[in-house]
Amino acid sequence: MTRTFEGLLAEAEAADVEGWGFSWLTGRATEERAPWGYTRLVADRVRHATALLDLETGGGEVLAEIPGLPATTWATEYWPPNLAIARRRLEPAGITVVDGDPTRLPFDDSSFDLVISRHPVAPPWAEAARVLRPGGTLLCQGIGPNSMIELAEVVAGPRPPGTRPDPEQTAEIVRQTGLIVTDLRTAALRAEFYDIGAVVYFLRKVIWTVPDFSVAKYRTALAALHARLRTDGPFVAHAQRFLLEARRPD
């Protein structure tokens, strides 16, 4: 049975968008995975770590997948809904999740030999460098400034330049903290949306794509995209990702 435009909107507006799980989109949207395999890289680095910090952990999804975490493992998260989810998910495993004020992390200098972060919004690079031990590693998967620009523009029209630093700018910011950047890679990952409900869910969850998004405000554009999906098939956009690895000098 073909679902109506209004029915798809209502379903997507009612969906829970807390945390960073995307299982609601199964069968409704796809996105290529980054070729470097962030979770795999974290698992590899963890084998050599004795103290780990996950910055902006979201709902704790990455840490929950990593086996053999160090006994000293902490996470930060500053968005209250995700903070509550991360604590429910991680604290039973002995991982403390703290409210992550990016201006000053609540840890002593040189506390961790591995600091990780996936898709940070306001990464405290100077603080990450401060809490790293000499010889320690920073590993981050970031979002490029024009990620999903095709989707943003089909819904909201031409977008202003992205406010996020691009990968090279981010690398330079990290270098200015005194860390040595040892790896920097980029990827454009194909994403497909199969119905308008998937679009609405994604825009509600990934709020920086169209910061002022609401169904009421963009109903006309959503209706046009719904018709396009019905006639032309999946809408294609591209997620921009980068991998940055850096080391604190010995």
UniProtKB/TrEMBL annotation:
EC number(s) given by UniProt: 2.1.1.-
GO molecular function terms listed in the Swiss-Prot or TrEMBL record: S-adenosylmethionine-dependent methyltransferase activity
InterPro entries for the chain: 23S_rRNA_MeTrnsfrase_RlmA, Methyltransf_11, SAM-dependent_MTases_sf
Keywords: Methyltransferase, Transferase
Pfam families from the UniProt entry: Methyltransf_11
A GO biological-process term: methylation
Domain of life: Bacteria
PANTHER family referenced in this protein's UniProt entry, alphabetically: METHYLTRANSFERASE (PTHR43460), METHYLTRANSFERASE TYPE 11 DOMAIN-CONTAINING PROTEIN (PTHR43460:SF1)
The protein's name: Phthiotriol/phenolphthiotriol dimycocerosates methyltransferase
Organism of derivation: Actinoalloteichus hoggarensis
